[in-house]
Amino acid sequence: MSAILVVDLPSGPYALAVGPDGAMWVTLVHSGQIARVTAGGEVTLYDVAPDSKPSIITAGPDGALWFTRNGDDRIGRITTDGVLSEIALPSGSAPFGITSGPGGALWFTAMNSGVIGRVDLDGSVTEVAHPGGMPSMITAGPDGALWFTLNEANAVGRLEPSGALRVREVPTPRSGPVGIAATHDDAIWFTEIRADKVGRIPTDEAIQELDLPGKPHAVVADPSGGVWVSLWGADQVARITADGEVSTIDLIANGEPHGLAIEHTASAGTALWVAMEAGYLWRLPVG
Fold first, then answer.
1. What angle do CA 46, 253, 197 make, to 5 degrees?
2. How far apart are CA 192 and CA 225, in angstroms?
3. Is the pTM here over 0.85, yes or no?
4. Cα separation of 6 and 12, whole Å?
5. DSSP assignment, residue 102?
6. What is the pLDDT of residues 232-242, one digit of tens each?
7. Beta-carbon count within 10 A of 148 CB
8. Which residue segments constitute the domains of the chain, with CATH numbers given?
């Protein structure tokens, strides 16, 4: 198994996604940049805008990376050659979560306006639903719907591409749901940062909760089953198996771990990448 790779990356690495070029693409929320990082740790920086606050990033269906600009109300796009473009949203929207989803489109959350929106590849924007409640992260579910957390409403929402909306209240009051991910067992997992818990929703069943101290923030599916979770308050990542068994890995003290991404290649196996807002990126071989 390869050693852990540590990449110094100042200016607030926040979220990350694997690009079609095999590199990791990272948002730098403090400096207004996007970083491209190779498996060997080579870094290339691309300037977006000083106050843009790039937040969540995802690989799009067009071979580019798409990201939210929480600070200046835009959706950004960057090609693997580093060519940047942008799509303006209404002032004060504060876009945050973004994912590739149904219809070959990008779907996003707007925290301040309470909107779930769709961006087509031609740049057209549609506000599909207005659940309110500070929508945070969003993922495409195994059932063809979009699933998202409502941080201030203490709920998880499910949106069909047609616009049909269902909102489920989280059992624990004031739990602060944030991260969300679809997994290989046809379930949705989400984090409850204020309650020190993670939740799991089999798509047509009741919400299940599991205690996970350390202020869980982001969650990503493990290809071998279960999930990985960043523990922002404990400077750790946790692995939760499908049976609910928990193990943890210590990171850098005061690292502020946020975004997670899984990289898998036939030659190098599986690695977990962790973005730490204090200025570090870790690549941990996990399989």
1. 90
2. 21
3. yes
4. 15
5. G
6. 999 999 999 98
7. 32
8. 10-225 (2.130.10.10)
